[in-house]
Task: structure prediction
Amino acid sequence: MAQIRIENVRKDFGAFTAVQSSTFTIEDGEFFMLLGPSGCGKTTTLRMMAGLELPTSGEIFIDGEEVGQKPASQRDIAFVFQMFALYPHMNVGKNISYPLLSQGMPKVQVKKKVAEIAEILGITDILNKPVGGLSGGDRQRVALGRAIVRDPKAFFMDEPLGALDAEFREHMSEELRALHDRMNATTVYVTHDQLEAMQMGDKIVVMNHGVVEQFGVPQDIYDWPATKFVAQFIGSPPMNFLNFNGMVGTGSTEVRMNDISITVPEAREGTHGAITFGIRPEHVRLDDSAPYRGRVVATEYLGTTQIVTLETANGAVKARLSSAERVNVGDQTGLQFDARTISLFDAETGKALKSAANKEVLSNG
Amino acid sequence: MSFSVTEPTKGTKWFAGILVVAYAVITIIPLLWIIATGFKSPSDSIAYPPVVVFEPTLEGYVNLFTDRTRATDDMLEAAGPPQTWYEEIARARGTVISGPSRYGERFLNSVIIGFGSTALCMILGTAAAYAFSRFRVPLKDDLLFFILSTRMMPPIAVAIPIFLIFRNLGLNDTHLGMILLYTAVNLSLSVWLLKGFIDEIPLEYEEAALIDGYTRFQAFYKVVLPQAATGIASTAIFCLIFAWNEYAFAVLLTSGEAQTAPPFIPNIIGVNGKDWPAVAAGATIFLVPVMVFTVLLRKHLLRGITFGAVRK
Result:
């Protein structure tokens, strides 16, 4: 198993730049998520790590060795494709054994190894079946078997659950995570599903338009997004944005939005002009005495919680409240923001302004 | 994937069955006619109205494979009684067999040239189709159009230049020349057909093989080729049928060494009058290799390409 380091990696397809200068490090044994909307360059990044695409510039280190321009067959990594890509002209056992055969491993040993892997994945009884008639879950297991059978340096997975039915996906993601914990293998996992990323990943890289937006552990990324894009992409519903013109001074602990003073984490970086005030729905409370006012325009019942949409002078705000609270459409009310959780963004660049609360997180990414 | 198909009613099934049988009968009658004519006597073969029930004879086949001379009574007496069954048949017509005909050689030439050009066409066609399908080839669309454009006129339109080129290169009346010619004519068809088949094979299979430690070439022949088998088989049948049946170039470019069966069969008519049973016998035997080839590859023609191992 190995550490993987990506340094200033860039990929151009003709005039189109898929990945612009990505840099991050995946530690040995980590379950690492590459997260972003489709077309953001996450799959291209993964394919460059695997050697299925060669980077236009930059370096890729696997286990300390620079492999950027090496073909996939020499990198000793395994790849699980979204569509599984099981060889259709071979049965299950042959599919799993195929990576071993390329290494010239003796037949007896191959057989033993395949049996062992089949045992781990619980597919011993289908080893002699053709891959054509298998269920989605079994195909997924065979694809995993083919990946883990030869103890590669790292596993790369390109939306491996994307082809499965929703109810089965949950089960498979648990199985995957358990398998990772058991093998302790460095795993890089591409997904566009932020829930999947938060749920499974040790660390997440969020990409957009070929740029790494943020890199860190799920909790930090959720609490302290580095950019407006991350704030909006992660979380359901996403972070609320209130746009206003004003200023933030270094060291100040409040902003004035529409002449109403709101307490924020101590600023470590100042700006003036267009500013975006960001707050997660669960950190908004309704309080009739609060000076910042809004009008309820919709409520959405979700069982234990409800999402209340309010209209304010600076834009719509969604609040996640307990279902027990009685809220009626049309109510005029005050909004209370949890001061410890507020992020401020430069509205022009979309970057988060440093504060006492998020400075550690931001200096990481 | 979800679809529903209504089970056809009994009446529909019968109707479809009758249509298929009728079509099969119509297409197979000329074939049966030729096969039957091969076993008729010369008088039965030109009888009018045509005879359907007749006494079969191997005279046509004997005439096809032998050269005979009309014999005088003295010669017959000198030759003694016939030694073999086929001599007996020849004697009955007042002829003696002077030696084997050249049909065997011509047939062998057809086999060498037909299968040789088909094999070459498959090797070159698969390689080119794979490159067109997978690599960034400069001017790809123009090249593909150019390749296709070679099919836009009948090949025989360029017969004279080809005749001159062949004469200058010493390829006239050689096996190699005919193999190259038929390969050149068939290659555009095979590149286009095979490219379509290879395009259908998801790239992920090769990538999986690359990841599994195989080289690009190994990925090609261990993973891509088995999946392209259906396409290669059907393309090979098309190429073989063309090369096998080709007549015009064969007449023009071959006469001795490398003559194929198609120009030889009509020659039979000239030698001993209109010997239709011998012509039919030649045609019947000529059918066999293509039929065998097609039956052998039938399994591949009917099989799906990917068995659904990739979810779509």
About this structure: DSSP finds nine helices and 20 strands in chain A. The radius of gyration of chain A is 24 Å. The domain at 228-363 of chain A is CATH 2.40.50.140 (OB fold (Dihydrolipoamide Acetyltransferase, E2P)).
